């Protein structure tokens, strides 16, 4: 390799080490780029080397591919993946030879694919289904597992006992473990406590808590009792909480008293307010509750049943288990129900694409209020793995130490966490080599950040993963059977068919994603919206007459079956991994003094990474535009009334918002305007 000692020294190596490495590199035989990179990973690139060395060598090896936009793999499947992964087992059993073959079979033979997935996950039924899929009422209203009776919680426990279900750490305490038997007993105490209190199957019960052992047991216990979990993220303001409670009308809420974030203690229970008469079960963050309870509310310790025997209420496949929220493209959040079949999609993606196996330790800093919370519970427990939970701030060194000490094997995250780790060198000196697979979702990834992440664990793949609350999992993802390219998706999700179409409805290499249903886990109804109008109305048939369903992502197809995310087609945006509508932000920010009109856009930064929130304003005729003070005021509105995690990058004045003939704001033009002004 033609790398100078000076270039290596500039990467942080000592002069002596730089010369030694340069001499070793020069002695390498001429090889194809992929073979050369694999040699470097095996013989040279350790986590202890400065990342700048990894980066220099990667860019040197793949210079022509990176300049032309051709995928440049940083990880290659090894013997374990090719012989022992769940996907490899499927290919062998089905006598198929590639991921492309498997995907084609899965979308052309949906019945057999879904049945094989159910069998592989060992889903338990109290009464087996008469048929896997019924489309007599139309594809929009597909019926899955007709005639079956089941409760998905039974599939989370099955025959496991002493195996570790959850490992967790609170603060600076020692790592603790809960066996499957112990988690099952705590789940039973919740379910039996609900029954004793008179809550019938089908009753909606809200949960607003951080991700803890107790919240996992509450989540499973509510579903085991046949009730429906209404999930509300613990970061929401009181106003946003009330919006979701009004939409779903639950009869009870489980809520923690406070949440500690570093040195700060944030109130949670008081967000309910004295006027909200929804009864609450209140859990203490520490050993005792912080402050008095409202009349009629009960502490967690008094609610729990003494009966530790778990009985799961039999339910129909399409009975609701959970209601989650996704903002979509209008101001009020959509209430999206997950039924008894949705977890099959979640656990199936964990099984097939994240290669979660018995004994794995799975960690993903998330919350039950976002789809990855329920996804994490099902993908871990149905696949007989261990769920790893920590209350450490995900971007902190403490969380990275937890990943090491808990011996996490599958680590999920959002790209902004990786960016923070890299900027702070949070993983320095830690041993992450036990990790088999990373996964990333929620935002467009920065390829250099993902290369850094792979390098910290001795090069492991990052499964880029994208879907939505209404899909129960991903439609586009990665796989351990194809080389991993930083920041790129490697394949469509097995069992999920979709097309890329341009504005004229023609197939394209860079366009809007349109789903081709049916897919198990894909929503068929909404709580507070017309499902057909949201997803199917005014969409012409596909090129071969397919019924198509809108989703809103823009994807670019690349050589060798890889894909790159290009953000959202519609007016929704992902900010820090949280989906929110432009309209929701705009309605709030019109409160700002002197503002006549507001347009909120998400701008992907150059090179990938978390989207930036940019606000365009049309001022009142008599008002002066002062960017700094206006941005500060708007940030305070968002912090107090929406979500403190949403940060405004810039506020810009514009004389008139660009609009279509039907008066819709053309946010794409605003994105182009902002990006043009930044270059």
UniProtKB/TrEMBL annotation:
<dbReference type="Pfam" id="PF00501">
    <property type="entry name" value="AMP-binding"/>
</dbReference>
<protein>
    <submittedName>
        <fullName>Acetyl-coenzyme A synthetase</fullName>
        <ecNumber>6.2.1.1</ecNumber>
    </submittedName>
</protein>
<keyword id="KW-0436">Ligase</keyword>
<dbReference type="GO" id="GO:0003987">
    <property type="term" value="F:acetate-CoA ligase activity"/>
</dbReference>
<dbReference type="InterPro" id="IPR045851">
    <property type="entry name" value="AMP-bd_C_sf"/>
</dbReference>
<dbReference type="InterPro" id="IPR000873">
    <property type="entry name" value="AMP-dep_synth/lig_dom"/>
</dbReference>
<dbReference type="Pfam" id="PF13193">
    <property type="entry name" value="AMP-binding_C"/>
</dbReference>
<keyword id="KW-0812">Transmembrane</keyword>
<feature type="transmembrane region" description="Helical">
    <location>
        <begin position="216"/>
        <end position="236"/>
    </location>
</feature>
<feature type="domain" description="AMP-binding enzyme C-terminal">
    <location>
        <begin position="584"/>
        <end position="664"/>
    </location>
</feature>
<dbReference type="InterPro" id="IPR042099">
    <property type="entry name" value="ANL_N_sf"/>
</dbReference>
<dbReference type="InterPro" id="IPR025110">
    <property type="entry name" value="AMP-bd_C"/>
</dbReference>
<dbReference type="InterPro" id="IPR020845">
    <property type="entry name" value="AMP-binding_CS"/>
</dbReference>
<keyword id="KW-0472">Membrane</keyword>
<keyword id="KW-1133">Transmembrane helix</keyword>
<feature type="domain" description="AMP-dependent synthetase/ligase">
    <location>
        <begin position="159"/>
        <end position="512"/>
    </location>
</feature>
């Amino acid at each position: 390799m033609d790398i100078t000692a000076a270039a290596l020294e500039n990467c942080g190596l000592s002069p002596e080490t730089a010369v030694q490495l340069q001499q070793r590199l020069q002695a390498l035989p001429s090889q194809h780029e992929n073979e050369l990179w694999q040699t470097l990973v095996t013989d040279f690139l350790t986590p202890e080397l400065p990342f700048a060395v990894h980066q220099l060598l990667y860019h040197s090896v793949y210079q022509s591919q990176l300049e032309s936009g051709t995928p440049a793999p940083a990880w290659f499947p090894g013997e374990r993946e090719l012989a022992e992964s769940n996907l490899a087992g499927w290919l062998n059993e089905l006598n198929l030879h590639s991921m492309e073959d498997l995907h084609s079979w899965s979308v052309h033979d949906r019945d057999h694919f879904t049945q094989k997935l159910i069998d592989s996950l060992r889903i338990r039924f109290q009464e087996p289904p008469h048929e896997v899929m019924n489309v007599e009422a139309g594809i929009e209203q597909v019926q899955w597992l007709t005639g079956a009776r089941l409760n998905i919680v039974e599939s989370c426990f099955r025959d496991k006992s002493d195996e570790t279900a959850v490992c967790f750490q609170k603060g600076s305490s020692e790592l603790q473990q809960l066996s499957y038997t112990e988690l099952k007993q705590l789940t039973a105490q919740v379910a039996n406590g609900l029954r004793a209190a008179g809550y019938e199957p089908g009753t909606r019960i809200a949960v607003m808590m951080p991700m803890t052992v107790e919240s996992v047991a509450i989540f499973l216990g509510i579903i085991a009792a046949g009730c429906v979990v209404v999930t509300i993220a613990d970061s929401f303001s009181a106003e946003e909480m009330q919006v979701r409670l009004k939409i779903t009308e639950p009869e009870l809420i489980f809520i923690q008293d406070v949440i500690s974030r570093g040195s700060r203690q944030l109130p949670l229970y008081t967000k309910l307010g004295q006027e909200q008469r929804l009864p609450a079960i209140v859990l203490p963050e520490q050993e005792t509750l912080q402050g008095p309870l409202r009349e009629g509310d009960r502490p967690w310790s008094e609610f729990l049943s003494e009966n530790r025997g778990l009985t799961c209420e039999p339910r129909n496949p399409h009975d609701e288990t959970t209601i989650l929220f996704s903002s979509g493209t209008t101001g009020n959040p959509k209430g999206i129900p997950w039924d008894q079949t949705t977890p099959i999609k979640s656990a199936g993606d964990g099984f097939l694409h994240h290669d979660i196996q018995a004994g794995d330790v799975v960690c993903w800093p998330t919350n039950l209020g976002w789809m990855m919370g329920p996804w994490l519970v099902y993908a871990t427990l149905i696949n007989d793995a261990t769920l790893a939970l920590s209350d450490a701030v995900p971007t902190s060194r403490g969380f990275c130490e937890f990943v090491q000490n808990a011996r996490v094997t599958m680590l999920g995250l959002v790209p902004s966490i990786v960016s923070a780790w890299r900027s702070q060198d949070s993983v320095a000196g830690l041993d992450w080599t036990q990790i088999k697979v990373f996964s990333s979702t929620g935002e467009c990834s920065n390829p250099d950040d993902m290369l850094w992440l792979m390098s910290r664990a001795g090069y492991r793949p990052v499964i880029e993963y994208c879907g939505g609350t209404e899909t129960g999992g991903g439609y586009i993802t990665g796989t351990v059977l194809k080389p991993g390219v930083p920041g790129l998706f490697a394949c469509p999700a097995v069992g999920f068919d979709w097309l890329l179409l341009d504005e004229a409805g023609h197939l394209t290499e860079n366009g809007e994603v349109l789903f081709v249903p049916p897919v198990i886990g894909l929503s068929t109804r909404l709580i507070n919206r017309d499902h057909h109008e949201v997803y199917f109305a005014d969409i012409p048939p596909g090129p071969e007459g397919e019924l198509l369903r809108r989703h809103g992502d823009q994807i670019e197809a690349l050589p060798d079956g890889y894909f790159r995310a290009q953000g959202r087609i519609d007016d929704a945006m992902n900010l820090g991994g949280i989906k929110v509508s432009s309209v929701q932000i705009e309605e709030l920010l019109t409160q700002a003094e002197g503002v006549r009109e507001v347009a909120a856009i998400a701008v992907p930064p150059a090179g990938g990474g978390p989207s930036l929130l940019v606000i365009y304003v049309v001022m009142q005729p008599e008002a002066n535009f002062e960017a700094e003070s206006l941005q500060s005021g708007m940030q305070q509105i968002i912090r107090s009334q929406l979500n403190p995690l949403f940060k405004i990058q810039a506020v810009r004045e514009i004389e008139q918002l660009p609009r279509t003939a039907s008066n819709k704001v053309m946010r794409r033009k605003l994105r182009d305007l902002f990006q043009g002004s930044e270059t």
